[in-house]
Amino acid sequence: MPGMIAAVVCFVSLAAVAGACWLVLPLLRARNKRLLAARMFGTSCDASGTIGFSLLCSGVRRLSQIENLLSSEYVRSEVVVVADASLRRAFFESLIARYRMIRVEYLPSDEFPVQHVRSMWRSRRRCFRRLVLLDRSEDTSADDWSAAASVASYDWLIPVRDGQYLLPGVLERLSVEAGQGHPGAVGALRSWVGGSFALLSRDAVAAAGGFGPGFLRKIPRHARRWLWEPFFYRPEFRRGSSRWRFLGVAALGCAIFAALWYGWWVLAGLLLAGAVVLCAVACAGLLLADMAGRKVPCKIDVKNFTEW
Amino acid sequence: MNLLLIICAVCSGAAVVGLSALWAVETLKARRQGGFRSVLQRRYLHIVMSALCSGRGAVPRFPMLRRVGSRLVLAETLAGVVSMTYGLDVGLLRQVVARYGLDRWLLRRVRFAQGYRRARYLALLAVLPVGEGIPPRMARYGRSRNRYVRFFALMTRVSAEPLAALRRLADYAGPFSDTEVAEIMTWLRRGALPVAYEPLVASPSFNLRRVGLSVVRQFGIEEAEPLLLRLLDGEGPYASGTEALFTLCALHRPLVRREVSRCVARLSPSQRRALMRYMAQCSYSPQVLSRLFDDSESAYYDTIVRSYKRCLV
Predict the structure, then answer these.
(1) CB atoms within 10 A of CB A128
(2) How is A136-151 classified by DSSP, letter by letter?
(3) What residues contact residue A249 under an 8 Å CB cut-off, 6+ apart?
(4) How far apart are the first and last CA of chain A?
(5) In chain B, is it the N or the C terminus that has fewer CB atoms within a 10 Å radius of its CB?
(6) How many CB pairs under 8 A join A and B?
(7) Tens digits of per-residue pLDDT, A51-97?
């Protein structure tokens, strides 16, 4: 029995070390890649090639979020918002008034067949030409995204949920990834760090029949890629108290020291495995904060063009 | 069994020490980034701009250059000035680089770094006005497995020897990505490379043709139309027909031509739809489409165009 316990502890320790490497090394590589991309000024001067992004918003309730999405300086990008005018009348009208939107013709597309679209609006303010608004009866996010994709102008689609704010320079960074390889080589770029994110090729989504259930699995595996970078942030996110964290780390350190001092190797192994996990999580948090441009917990400024 | 436990504990302990060291280094770096580094960067930028504006040609002195990370800040400041200015006389910056040994220092960092870090130092080296000894040392990085390392090694050689730029670009192994072409365009816009579109568009090299088409698109060179029409007939994986077609649209040139019809017929359905969306953004009339696409595809274009308008009657 002691042999069994020792084997389990060994396995847990090695798994913790392997997991820490699996988490921290890709994040380090992603951070270095992001720093490199920030030095490439080509995409900030002009859109690279014909790469364009349509941000498809479903369930968005805050004007500040739409303002954040519109504040990207990448030339070929647009924001398509799907909202129900009958349920969220005040939000809908404030959008129309704020961005001076005009109603245009909506004709259903055979590429993404959707129903219940009542009207379509486009912004006519010089600084917000890139905003499109769809009035559609409230439905699932998948159907909202399909409706938004049917009127999107660009070849790369980014589904956005309520409360997901775009980090600065994200579209320029994504244009670097989307431009790699021959056309059609990338179907979906996904990231799980800092909130779920997906950049999808329009052709791949259309071939999968829209944003239905399990549509990502219909995209060929070789065309799916993972990125280890945050692209969205949530402004309401708050870190825990640093005093409690310090006390926890000190207690763990004392416990490890005591276990090693008295030769309780099983306990020491378990505590050290826990310490590895804690250190890996702390390093990952620091690297993510670095990539998101937050050195210390602070508010990320959002550009305000509304006074133009 | 105790021995196995001790070995595992030692492994875990080593991992804890390593990760703690990484955490400490990153925390220190983050603190410096926010305070010391940004202040130093502003100060260096002010010194460089003052020296450039004074026109005396004297190499300025930079304070605190012996502190850790200061040389990188200086290199990034100089690179930022070169990248963001047009028609800059780099004579003074060349003297600064030589006097403080930034090129040799960056080369050392390139040698010891790996992957994207190495590419980042190479990107800095490519922008700085470096001495003649640097380009030959870039040959080994041109064979790297990392695409970015290969590309920035090429750009270092190109910026150091602009006369051999076209030969170097043509010899590059593998096709350029959109981002790489956009990066080369920033070089062109700064005047670091010649903007002669004709030899580029007519070149047998796929990479040079891509750069040439990008020049035509971004500078709006309508005189390039005959060359573009000639490219439309090309077939095969490294033909530039599709890109030439998009360039014609960007120039707002007439599309009712035999060459265009032949090229459109070769496109896949998804490529045709992408072309139609691009044409709608370039404000082409639906009448043009009826000669290029069949009725069902023209209907798709009609939905796009009408989504930009409002019927008043």
Answers:
(1) 20
(2) E----HHHHHHHHHHH
(3) A278
(4) 74
(5) C
(6) 181
(7) 889 999 998 989 999 999 998 888 889 999 999 999 989 999 999 99
Question: Mean pLDDT score of chain A, rounded to an integer?
Answer: 84
Q: Which two structure tokens, joined as six digits, stand for A106?
A: 């909506």
Query: For a pLDDT cut of 90, what percent of chain B falls above it?
Result: 23
What does the DSSP assignment read for B250-282?
HTT----SHHHHHHHHHS-HHHHHHHHHHHHHT
pLDDT at A202: 92
Whether chain B has a CB inside 8 Å of the CB on A154: the answer is yes
Question: What pLDDT score does B283 carry?
Answer: 83
**With contact defined as beta carbons under 8 Å apart, do A19 and A150 qualify?**
no
Model pTM score: 0.85
Phi, psi of A44 (to 5 degrees): -80, -20
Q: Are B176 and B213 in contact (CB under 8 A)?
A: no
Q: For domain A43-233, which CATH number applies: 3.40.50.150, 3.90.550.10, 1.20.1090.10, 3.40.720.10?
A: 3.90.550.10
Q: Does residue A300 register a pLDDT over 50?
A: no
Q: What is the 3-state secondary structure (H, E, C) of A207-255?
A: HCCCCCCCHHHHCCHHHEEECCCCCEECCCCCCCCHHHHHHHHHHHHHH
CB distance from B23 to chain A under 8 Å? yes
Burial call B218-241: b when 16+ CB within 10 Å, e when fewer: beebeebbebbbebbebeeeebbb
Write out pLDDT tens, residues B137-175. 888 898 899 999 999 999 999 888 888 888 889 989 888
- Among residues A120, A131, A39, the alpha carbon closest in space to that of A77 is found at A131
How far apart are the C-alpha atoms of B43 and B41, rounded to whole Å?
A: 5
B232, two tokens: 């439309």
Residue to mutate among B4, B12, B187, B215, with most A CBs inside 10 A, is B12
Place of tokens 């760090």: A193
Q: Which residues contact A200 (CB under 8 A, 6 or more apart)?
A: A156, A157, A158, A159, A187, A188, A189, A219
Sorting pLDDT into bands at 50, 70 and 90, what band is A301? very low
Q: What residues of chain A lie within 8 A of the CB of B16, using their CB? A: 272, 275-276, 279
